[in-house]
Amino acid sequence: MKSLPLFRKNSLTTWLVLGCSMIAISGCGGTPKTVPSTSLKPAETSAIATTTPASKPTSIVAELLFHFPLTGLPSDKEIKSRPFMVMVENAPQARPQTGLDQADIVYEILAEGEITRFVSVFQSHDAKVIGPVRSIRPYFVEIGDALDAVIVHAGWSQDAMNIMAGRKLSHLDEVYGDGAYYWRATDRKAPHNLYTSVDKMKQGAEARKFRSEWNGPLLTFAKEGQAKLTGAAVNYIQIPYIQGYFASYEYKAAEGVYMRSMEGKPHVDKETGKQLQTKNLLVLESKHKIVDNEGRREVDVFGPGKGLIFQEGRSQAITWERKNGLLRAYADGREVPLLPGNTWVQIVPEGTTIKME
Fold first, then answer.
1. Taking a C-beta distance cutoff of 8 angstroms, is the pair 284, 347 a contact?
2. Which helix (H) or strand (E) holds 23?
3. Which tens digits make up the pLDDT trace of 267-295?
4. What secondary structure letter does DSSP report for 338?
5. Are 99 and 127 in contact (CB under 8 A)?
6. Distance between CA atoms of 310 and 252, rounded to whole angstroms?
7. Concatenated DSSP letters for 218-244?
8. Which of left, alpha, beta for 168 (phi over 0: left; psi -120 to 50: alpha)?
9. Do strands 343-349 and 280-286 pair parallel, antiparallel, or not at all (unpaired)?
10. Fewer Cβ atoms within 10 Å of its own Cβ: the N or the C terminal residue of the chain?
11. pLDDT tens per residue across span 225-251
12. Closest of 132, 171, 111, 147 to residue 294, by C-alpha
């Protein structure tokens, strides 16, 4: 056991039609001209038809597969829609939560009340239930703004609202005017029973006439054969927060993911009962400061700071910094790429010691 101190749309149909055209034209005479494949455009189809064997269209189509921007996983179309960033509660009365298993990225960060809150980002999955939804704070707003996400919450601190109003950010607030895009469950007591869905959020964004096309940042994902982490093998990570609350992850080698627990018990989704998991795990040290009698905090989400990244059962010490809209991990002056899949980011106070086995 070690303790260490603490990351255009061209339709596939169009390309298939082009492939068919190639076969039809291949019987024509004439001297073919060689055209590099990297410069091919739809307008150059005659050059393709006279130079490319009939077996090539499949490889061209494969190269044009799209990917989800926040997970790096394959998509059958180009994704240009804005993500939604939903504030999800983590008080004991709100557990287990729903929908976190379908988030592309989840940040866990301390709020007041000596408990954490989840900043959950949805773009690749149309989650039908997400919550319980709670209020927002300035450092949560900063994450959502940098992502160019539609911010979804129920209430706010005055400082958080000042930022959103001053920057004219797109947001849906259940407490003040956007209640139609949420609902209250009957099996829990308020305020721990408020939920939304991707469909509801889309309805709200359309009704409020929010910009729909995404101007957000792109993550860096590892390519096939790229070097893996160079640190020690680690199969268990325990991350303390405050007053005995801790999150932990255990590596599941068969699937290459980390299974999440809270306070020693599997963290499961309320609807499916399945344990939450992540492909990439980042633990980032950050400056924290309590700023009022309610226990509200200032949390640095800009960096730079120290941290650790975990992938496929291995660890690596990093520095982190917000660049190009995202909290990114660096080692030896280079960005550490993520593996295709979802990502959990644990932001903890400076000096936090995590347990690794």
1. yes
2. helix 12-25
3. 999 999 999 999 999 999 999 998 788 77
4. B
5. yes
6. 12
7. ---BPPTT-----S-B-SEEEEE-STT
8. left
9. parallel
10. N
11. 787 898 999 999 999 998 889 999 999
12. 111
